[in-house]
Protein: Histidine--tRNA ligase
Amino acid sequence: MAFRIPRGTVDLMPGEVEKWQYVESKARELCRRYHFSEIRTPIFEHTELFQRGVGETTDIVEKEMYTFTDRGDRSLTLRPEGTAGVVRSFVEKKVFGQPQPTKWYYIGPMFRYERPQAGRQRQFHQFGVEVFGTEEPAMDAEIIDLGVQFYQSLGLTGVKVELNSVGCPQCRPVHREQLVKFLTPRKDELCKDCQSRLDRNPMRILDCKNERCKELTQDAPKMVDCLCDECRTHFDAVKEYLDVLGVDYVLNPRLVRGLDYYTRTAFEFTVESKGSQAGTVGGGGRYNGLVKEIGGDDVPGIGFGIGIERTLLALEEQEVTLPIDYGVDCYLVTLGEEAKRQSVTLLKALRQAGCSAERDYLDRKMKGQMKAADRAQARYVAILGENELKANSIVVKELATGEQETIALDQFVDYVREGSRK
Ligand SMILES: [Zn+2]
Ligand SMILES: [Zn+2]
Structure:
């Protein structure tokens, strides 16, 4: 029998994985500049954490989790998103007792049982940030800007910030009441999911993807019109800071995070994708009630999650070429047994000097070795034969230009190193 990769997963092969490394390195570098520290939490957690931290009434928890019972009869779940585990750690390690804010980021795989399609896998990957311990609106704006900077650093253009405020436990019931009043006479026309949302989580009806539901909620009461004074002031300040930072945004009253512990700022990053349909490449918001929900003190939080697959897909659609060097600095071609013996030390010297270096291991003839050097996209090919050995020299050829020089053997490593830096 032949084994196949599980549906909704991919092998990241050499040639592709370099793009991932590049994207991840950009994320790490930005986080360093914004003074975030990396946190790595396990890829599985107790199921209840996600039920509490993501919400029982969400599609994720109702339909999409990879949940299993382990040999100790515990219910565990492969993390469907990054925030819950990070909050669990923040609470469990009592980090809330330390001076705040706490600024963390993560990069890693997440798991959801969904219908696989372009940019959507069952094992997918997210870059996310979380900040705990401040309600300061400047932080909301900075987080959004960090997301924008990330896309820009990759060369992605046309990324749009969609922004909303979902209020707080004081003002949201006002909106909820208006919304239910507005939707109840239209209940029969809503999709099945939304009919059940009407009782349990009416706000989520606003971001239903069903066309009919979208139409029906066109003139529905908006959360932003129901904000209490504190939420209004906070939202205005976030918008002001975004202006100061030069971040463009559009207000989207449909953008909701329908759970009680999501508060105030909600945002999404979208990009025009093929078929002129805006694709969401990331999103986030405030969750001032989540830390308490998970068992900690009443500490506010805010964060985002950015989909790496979707970001790469958007880059591909925009035909952005990432500046990745796939080649090896030097390929060592040897002729004769003595040269082959010497090549081992030369390779080691190159590698210790910080260069990438390769040679032939299949006893290929000169021509075959040159072909291999081409395949390795070598910057330099160094040729060591009997004549060179006698003269304590080596021939170095730059493949791109065809320029060739004979170098003293003791200068060779420096020559390649200097050249590779150019
Ligand atoms: Zn409020
Ligand atoms: Zn619906």
